[in-house]
Amino acid sequence: xxxxxxxxxxxxxxYARPTEVVARELLGRVxxxxxxxxxxxxxxxxxxxxxxxxxxxxxxxxxFRGPTKRAAIMFGRxxxxxxxxxxxxxxxxxxxxERDGEPGAVLIRALEPLAGQALARERRGGRxxxxxxxxxxxxxQALGIDLxxxxxxxxxxxxxxxxxxxxxxxxxxxxxxxxxxxxxxxxIREAADWPLRFSVGGSPxxxxxxxxxxxxxxxxRAGR
DNA sequence: GAACCGATTGCCT
DNA sequence: GGCAATCGGTTCG
Length: 224
Known about the structure:
Blueprint: H1 12-15, H2 19-26, E1 30-35, E2 42-53, E3 81-86, E4 90-96, E5 105-115, H3 117-123, H4 136-143, H5 161-164, E6 165-170, E7 180-183, E8 197-200, E9 213-215
Antiparallel strand pairs: 1-2, 1-6, 2-5, 2-8, 3-4, 4-5, 7-8, 7-9
The protein binds a DNA duplex (13 and 13 nucleotides) through residues 51, 53, 60-62, 65, 68-71, 84-90, 92, 94, 107, 109, 131, 135-138, 147, 185-189.
């Protein structure tokens, strides 16, 4: 599948907006990665689930304690990749939002595989397609993303492209409000009920069920 | 310099 | 549904 069919690369102005808006608008967009270790082999997926992590007012955000060495990147330029390591074995991938100087990032939680499933499966130890990219640590493994990718620019060719490879986000197809499900966030204690998780309703590629959820286009909450 | 925690997953019961 | 694995970042002394 040619990369051109995924649309234009999203411009930096796309990310220079409130983190919640960026998270909602990222649904349906396409992550495309060609790692230096696997030249010419594209792995791509459509974003079906993501979460917004805000600034100092959000106790679940790495930016909560200010611009520490790890979190400083969240205070910087939008459209930059923020990769962190957790649980001693997993990598998670975020894209920095808000204008330069304001903290915020969107955690990519699940992708629908679009290209490069064979390579993704190799990296994932031959796991079934259903579990290839459905989960924040699963998708980084499938894409070959680790700490070396922290700071990569998803808007354009990175200076470090030769060392690590290239990652871009393309426009794909915007998801309509009626398809967007909003719910509480996953895997955190503080502020887990803040409605900052966004997913594509009915997608079989979402990582896990919702504690509670609401469709954007309808009023009120759907039950558990 | 050391202790503690974690934006998770996979395997076990 | 429960829990071990495994190590960087943060915090505290």
